[in-house]
Specification:
The complex is a heterotrimer of chains A (about 350), B (about 190) and C (about 260). By secondary structure, chain A is an alpha/beta fold. Chain A has two domains: about 5-180, Thiamin diphosphate (ThDP)-binding fold, Pyr/PP domains (Rossmann fold, 3-Layer(aba) Sandwich); about 240-345, 3-Layer(aba) Sandwich (Rossmann fold), CATH 3.40.50. Chain A is built from twelve helices and twelve strands. In chain A, strand 5 (about 130), helix 6 and strand 6 form a beta-alpha-beta unit. Chain B has a single domain, classed as Pyruvate-ferredoxin Oxidoreductase, domain 3 (3-Layer(aba) Sandwich), CATH 3.40.920.10. A six-stranded mixed β-sheet of chain B has the order 2-3-1-4-5-6. In chain B, strand 5, helix 3 (about 100-105) and strand 6 form a beta-alpha-beta unit. The radius of gyration of chain B is 16 Å and the shape is globular. Chain C has one domain (about 25-245): 3-Layer(aba) Sandwich (Rossmann fold). Chain C has helices at about 30-40, 75-85, 100-105, 105-115, 155-160, 165-170, 185-200, 215-220, 225-235; strands spanning about 50, 65-70, 90-95, 120-125, 130, 135, 175-180, 205-210, 240-245. A seven-stranded mixed β-sheet of chain C has the order 2-1-3-4-8-7-9, sandwiched between helices. A two-stranded antiparallel ribbon of chain C has the order 5-6. In chain C, helix 3 (about 100-105) packs across helix 4 (about 105-115) and helix 4 (about 105-115) runs parallel beside helix 6. The chains are: A alpha/beta (about 350), B alpha/beta (about 190), C alpha/beta (about 260). Chains A and B meet through helix 7, helix 9 and helix 12 of A and helix 1 and strand 2 of B.
């Protein structure tokens, strides 16, 4: 099935209660599949008037204690940020699937990895978000389910950062019931609409995202930041291949990581000591794991379908290290293993 | 190197390019291969050349698109030019025989190629609607890695509901498949042991 | 001796970008022809700025020999208002679909109508989000099947079709021109559009014209069914005609507010 269909099934399997959405290519089919399946499983759907509304309606859904989610891309992702900033501030377990397309502005409807900045840091805050970057249909399925669990367990807005290629391509996938794999879905708790008479049987929920003085804000933020840093080790995920003696470390995320891995295999077959590192969570970014590997290598090569969005995160995480970082940066373009290998040799990185 | 087949197909909307790609991908998957298919499209989703990319191998496919195809299929005048970036020295260019002049002009005499009289066969021996199934047969014949059964089953999955309404359609499609297969297997050089 | 007649295309059409990119049976070609004829009749080609939205309307970005800007979804009107306020001598045309105008762009419509912005807005209403594959739109009819209403639009859950011209007619101050035409009557449509441009030229107020249009690709209809839908089913919900002319004010209570304490 296509990636969009996989996401719809994953949301279903995760017990998502309601989807809010607005048409934008290349995620439309998530809505198409959801609207066909939802009534049969008594799930809800509303097509809103735009992505601002879809984002805020999703915020509403989670406030009400339901597994609400939405999906968007490109210019829609930009509009989504206002609601996501509110979710960051108020610690709301929103789940958003982003299917990256070319940018900026309308650009292409096809593919890119250019929404890393936006998805990781798009609000007017510190980017306290969880962002998963799947690279296959099996992962799209798994991480959509995980996104709901991470969101509700840790209460930071959570994102599944896919792309237009994964959305539209067909490849084999195994669909499963989370319970069958020992995954227990994190329970949901409402923040409004609690039982009992407010003011008499219980305190009313007075939720706000506004503060009066600098000190108040600072305290709220630092609490959230400390919590984020504390849970980061539990949330962070990465993958490596052939890194023990790697002289060249190739770093990529999402679908491009498949090409990076294949490039490493190809280089190894010809005797070159290449290794591959893949952040699976872009937030929290696995800098601590990457540092010792990067320190041992002679060269780092960041490969992405953007112009430095991943590279910047890598460099920020490795600050102080002397290993040179090169980028194979192809905004909006697909990347094949062959071109990575060619670049490695052309730049004499190994 | 392990079995790794890259096929690009291009034609006008309505020629059934995506169908052929989906069926061969499905057939490969059912036969136990790793198969990945992706369509190509732009903002102007209507009215552009329809392009499909198929990759089949034993290992999971490493990138949805590729730079050079092992087999590239061009079914319309615009498609001949459109697929240029995917055609390399070793690529087998498969095309509708009516495009011979275009192909020679763009790719030259030395390009490995296979002209298929799919239009004539469809119109004179069968029915215009199975044009793309003939092409499907050619691909199955040329590559030789799929059993007839796998493809027939995939055809069934794609068009089964239409066959149910009109059983003659099934027979027609199978004939088109066989006819294409004949043409393709005569040219078989790629597909195995690459 | 029979002479094959070439259909007469508006002067303002750009020949180099024809044939156009719209689907066979699409109403955009007809609406754009009406617009082209109106621009020709008023002889305003040199100072007309054409703006188009996201969706199928964006395919008109190179359609005319007019300076054109393709904007973001629903933002065409504000961009053109920005141009008009900065350069009032230009004539600005905002060309959108029903999604851009009535969903994501609704707030801008309300604001421009209230301000009586000197812009001529043309909304092509085909009841679906066509470019993205046929999802429900603000003007989808109750019971109509779309990709996000696969079982038919349920008005109880998703509301009734939005009546855009009626909304603008109700809130725009005197001087506004509001009409709804259809591709089924191109002479009338061209008339409405021309009056709409005239309204801007004479500085009277906002001009808003909705055009009932077709999308056989996403309706999955043949020619007969397509015309049937436009001419019968759509007009049952969306009445064709002029709703406001510049002499009238909006219906219901409308009080002219005297300016107080401001020096003119």
């Amino acid at each position: 099935m296509t990636g969009n269909e996989v996401v719809a099934w994953a949301a279903l399997a995760a017990g998502a209660d309601i989807m809010y959405g607005y048409p934008i290519t290349p995620q439309n089919e998530i809505m198409h599949y959801w609207t066909r399946m939802a009534p049969k499983y008594e799930r809800g759907f509303l097509q809103t008037e735009d992505e601002i509304s879809a984002g805020f309606a999703t915020v509403g859904g989670v406030l009400a204690g339901k597994r609400a989610f939405t999906a968007t891309a490109g210019p829609g992702n930009i509009l989504m940020q206002e609601a996501m900033a509110m979710a960051e501030m108020m610690r709301l377990p929103t789940v958003v699937v982003v299917t990256q397309r070319g940018g900026p502005s309308t650009a292409t409807v096809i593919y890119s990895q250019q929404e890393l900045n936006l998805t990781c840091f798009g609000g007017n805050g510190e980017g306290l978000r969880i962002v998963y970057s799947p690279s296959s249909h099996d992962e799209l399925f798994l991480y959509t389910i995980k996104a709901f669990n991470s969101a509700w367990k840790y209460r930071f807005p959570t994102f599944v950062l896919g792309d237009g290629y994964q959305s539209k391509m067909r490849e084999p996938v195994t669909i499963f019931d989370p319970e069958a794999r020992g995954i227990t879905m994190e329970p949901c708790r409402p923040m409004v609409g609690l039982s009992g008479l407010p003011g008499e049987e219980r305190d009313p929920a007075h939720l706000r995202n506004t503060y009066n003085l600098e000190d108040e804000l600072y305290e709220v933020l630092m609490t959230a930041i400390k919590e984020y840093e504390a849970i980061a080790p539990q949330v962070v995920e990465w993958d490596t291949y052939a890194v023990d003696d790697a002289e060249l470390l190739i770093i990529a995320h999402g679908v491009v990581s498949r090409a990076a891995r294949a490039a490493v295999v190809s280089l190894r077959e010809r005797g070159f000591k290449a290794g591959y590192f893949r952040p699976v969570t872009l937030k929290p970014f696995p800098a601590e794991t990457l540092r010792p590997l990067a320190a041992r290598a002679r060269n780092l090569l960041v490969v992405e379908s953007a112009y430095g969005q991943l590279k910047r995160q890598v460099q920020a995480g490795l600050y102080g290290l002397e290993t040179p970082v090169t980028g194979y940066l192809r905004p909006g373009m697909g990347i094949t293993p062959e071109e990575i290998v060619e670049f490695v040799h052309a730049k004499e990185l190994i | 190197m392990d079995f790794n087949l890259k096929i690009a197909l291009a034609g006008e909307g309505g020629q059934g390019v995506q169908s052929v790609a989906e069926i061969i991908t499905e057939a490969a998957y059912q036969a136990g291969f790793q198969a990945l298919y992706i369509p190509n499209f732009g903002v102007e989703q209507r009215g552009g050349v329809s392009v499909a990319f198929v990759q089949i191998s034993r290992e999971p496919v490493s990138a949805p698109k590729f730079t050079t195809g092992d087999i590239v299929v061009a079914l319309s005048h615009r498609a001949v030019e459109r697929v240029r970036q995917y055609v390399g020295e070793k690529t087998l260019l498969v095309y509708e025989v009516g495009l011979e002049d275009d192909v020679l002009q763009v790719y030259g005499e030395r390009q490995r190629r296979l002209a298929v009289p799919a239009l004539a066969i469809a119109q004179e021996e069968m029915h215009p609607r199975v044009f793309n199934v003939i092409i499907l047969g050619v691909l199955v014949g040329v590559t030789g890695f799929l059993e007839h059964r796998d493809v027939e089953q995939a055809l069934e999955r794609q068009f089964g509901h239409k066959f149910a309404q009109d059983p003659d359609l099934r027979e027609l499609n199978y004939r088109a498949l066989d006819r294409g297969y004949e043409i393709g297997s005569g040219k078989r050089e790629v597909g195995n042991g690459r | 001796m029979a002479i094959a007649a070439q259909p007469q295309m508006p002067r303002v059409w750009r020949a180099e970008t024809k044939p156009h990119k719209f689907c066979p049976g699409c109403g955009h070609g007809i609406v754009l022809k009406a617009l082209g004829e109106a621009i020709d009749a008023l002889d305003i080609q040199e100072r007309t700025i054409f703006g188009c939205d996201i969706g199928c309307s964006l395919l008109s970005w190179d359609f005319f020999n007019l300076d054109t800007v393709q904007t973001h979804h629903g933002r065409t009107t504000p961009v053109l208002v920005g141009i008009k306020r900065a350069r009032p001598e230009l004539v600005v045309v905002s060309y959108m679909g029903d999604g851009g105008a009535y969903a994501i762009g609704a707030q801008h419509l309300v604001s421009s109508a209230s301000r009586n912005d000197l812009v001529t807005i043309i909304v092509v209403n085909n009841t679906v989000y066509a470019m993205t594959g046929g999802q429900m739109a603000p003007t989808t009819l109750p019971g109509q099947k779309t990709e996000t209403t696969p079982y038919g639009r349920d008005a109880r859950l998703t509301g009734r079709p939005i009546l855009g011209p009626e909304l603008v007619a109700a809130i725009a101050p005197p001087g506004a021109y509001v009409a709804r035409g259809s591709i089924a009557n191109i002479v009338q449509l061209k008339n409405f559009i021309q009056k709409g441009l005239q309204n801007q030229l004479e500085g009277r107020g906002i001009a808003f014209i909705e055009a009932l249009s077709s999308c056989p690709t996403n309706w999955h209809t043949n020619a007969a069914a397509t015309w049937g839908f436009v001419e019968k089913e759509m007009t049952a919900y969306f009445p064709v005609g002029e709703l406001r002319t510049p002499e009238e004010g909006p219906s219901g209570r409308f009080q002219e507010v005297p300016a107080r304490g401001f020096q003119s």
